[in-house]
Fold this sequence. Notes:
It contains six helices and eight strands. The chain has 178 residues and is of the alpha+beta class. The relative contact order is 0.19.
Amino acid sequence: MPTYISLLRGINVSGQKKILMVDLKSLYEELGFTNVQTYIQSGNVAFEYKKTTPIKLQKMILDKINNHYGFEVPNLILAPKEIEEALDNNPYQHIEKPYFTFLSEFPKQENIDALNSISFDNEFFELIAKVIYSHYPNGVGRAKMTLNFFEKKLKVNATARNLNTTKKLLEMAKFTTD
Length: 178
């Protein structure tokens, strides 16, 4: 069975949309997903399921969470290969704490052009395929180029993870297939 990686957006942030990972794992298992593994409290899940489309999986997860908790949680489904490519293509290999913003789809060129026309001091990014690589020498907490900023400018849904979490997602995905 194929392995998938599910990235939920905006759960357990500032006490909003609280979902315990043990409960999330149970919900995924109720959907028929197997070898379900979660990582930290921000909605990172690796699992196996029959071959299907990411869109169908996203809808299944969105509906299950909404039915159980009464709120919607956008999610993004990636294949392990996509995580591996994101790590390999990272233009900030020499940077200690880069961030990876995974986009739900390819943005329109006009939106990419608009994004590329903006810059902030000590905030750096590169868009490669459906991943924005960024780093913030002064810290991400003060950054203006946030996840919401990128979503608004590119007009696509997205979710972000740091380098350590992105590496861990790939490890989890490889473990499910062993």
